[in-house]
């Protein structure tokens, strides 16, 4: 379902962010991306989401080479991808409901009733249904992360990408967030989670891809 063939990504600086990497991830897999700051984890996620394009090599999602498609097709692919961004991208002038609703904008086809149903169901899935009218500044760090996850899944994506979703959380809250991803995984979603804290990941018995300076190690 996700295939990288000899992918190199350069941002025009002296070192490549990714250097000739190849891997594939099957439909329904849960995979962790581990590695130091600057190793290239976010770059892999951005390539899968079609936010960035590979400089060399091919990035294939569901048999479609992202380098070969039109902007419209790219939007279509992105409708099947949910992203939990590293910098959260929470809008603090809107309440929880409106922040989650933003996740539906990429599809934009829902009437008011469907919108309410989808947002409520996403908030229920992350245990935030009681905070629907709350403003984000009144949420704890863990709750803000749950809000980001609800926004990422509200359009029911087939692929869920999460960039350092456990950063800045204590171990207890980080484990709760990982449990949430496990629940989406059980529901059949393909999930890729980046994290620099390898000790957190090792207990999970899932596949871990270790990155070091834009290449896989081990
Ligand atoms: N937009 C950009 N322009 C120039 N260089 C970039 C850009 N984005 C990333 N890089 C560089 O590419 C390399 C890989 O960055 P990337 O963000 O993928 O790493 P990361 O493993 O996600 O790091 P972190 O854990 O700190 O988020 C780094 O050297 C980074 O400085």
From TrEMBL:
Highest rank taxon of the organism: Bacteria
A Pfam family it matches: ABC_tran
Keywords: Amino-acid transport, ATP-binding, Cell cycle, Cell division, Cell membrane, Membrane, Nucleotide-binding, Translocase, Transport
Xref: InterPro entries: AAA+_ATPase, ABC_transporter-like_ATP-bd, ABC_transporter-like_CS, ABC_transpr_LolD-like, P-loop_NTPase
GO biological process: one example: amino acid transport
The ABC transporter domain, residue ranges: 2-218
One cellular component (GO) term of this entry: plasma membrane
GO molecular function: ATP binding; ATP hydrolysis activity; transmembrane transporter activity
Biological role: Part of the ABC transporter FtsEX involved in cellular division. Important for assembly or stability of the septal ring.
Family membership: Belongs to the ABC transporter superfamily.
Record-given protein name: Cell division ATP-binding protein FtsE
Organism field: Aquella oligotrophica
């Amino acid at each position: 379902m996700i295939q990288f063939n000899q992918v190199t990504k350069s941002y025009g600086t002296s070192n490549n962010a990714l250097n000739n990497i190849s891997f594939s991830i099957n439909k329904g897999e849960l995979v962790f991306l581990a590695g130091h700051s600057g190793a290239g984890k976010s770059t892999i996620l951005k390539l899968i989401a079609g936010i960035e394009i590979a400089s060399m090599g091919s990035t294939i999602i569901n048999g479609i080479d992202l380098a070969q498609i039109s902007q419209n097709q790219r939007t279509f692919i992105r409708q099947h991808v949910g992203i939990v961004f590293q910098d959260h991208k929470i809008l603090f002038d809107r309440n929880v409901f409106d922040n989650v609703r933003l996740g539906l904008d990429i599809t934009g086809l829902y009437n008011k009733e469907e919108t309410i149903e989808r947002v409520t169901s996403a908030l229920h899935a992350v245990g935030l249904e009681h905070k629907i009218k709350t403003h984000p500044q009144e949420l704890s760090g863990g709750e803000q992360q749950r809000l980001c996850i609800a926004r990422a899944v509200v359009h029911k994506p087939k692929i869920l990408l999460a960039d350092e979703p456990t950063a800045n959380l204590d171990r207890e809250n980080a484990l709760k967030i990982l449990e949430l991803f496990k629940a989406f995984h059980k529901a059949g979603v393909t999930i890729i989670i980046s994290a620099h804290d390898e000790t957190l990941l090792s207990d999970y018995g899932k596949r871990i891809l270790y990155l070091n300076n834009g290449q896989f190690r081990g």
